[in-house]
Amino acid sequence: MKKFNERKARVHISFFVMVVFGVYAIIMLLKQGVIIKEQKMEQENLLREKVRLEAEINALENELEHVGSYEYIEQVARERLGWVKEGEIKFVEIK
After folding, report:
1. Residues 90 and 82 sit within 8 Å (Cβ to Cβ)
2. I want to staple 83 with a disulfide (CB 3.0 to 4.6 A). Which of 32, 48, 77, 93 is the partner?
3. Whether this model's pTM surpasses 0.70
4. CA 84 to chain centre
5. What's the N-to-C CA distance of the chain in angstroms?
6. pLDDT at residue 60 above 70?
7. What SS3 state is found at 9?
8. DSSP assignment, residue 84?
């Protein structure tokens, strides 16, 4: 009878250890799932930022190519300095 009780105690301890391990494994899997979800969201945000920055780079490269041209110089002179060509009339909006 004593041996039976010892076996029963071992079975209970083994079962308890397995349950604790199982609960621990489930908790770790859930935590990893949350971490993976957060990392996917961060990856999506970074990809959107990358696309935005690439578009900005392209726009700046295009502007850089355009900066030295006569058309750009004329545009800047008209917009910032109020330059007008001979024979043109400049209209100024008064607010």
Report:
1. yes
2. 77
3. no
4. 46
5. 104
6. yes
7. helix
8. -
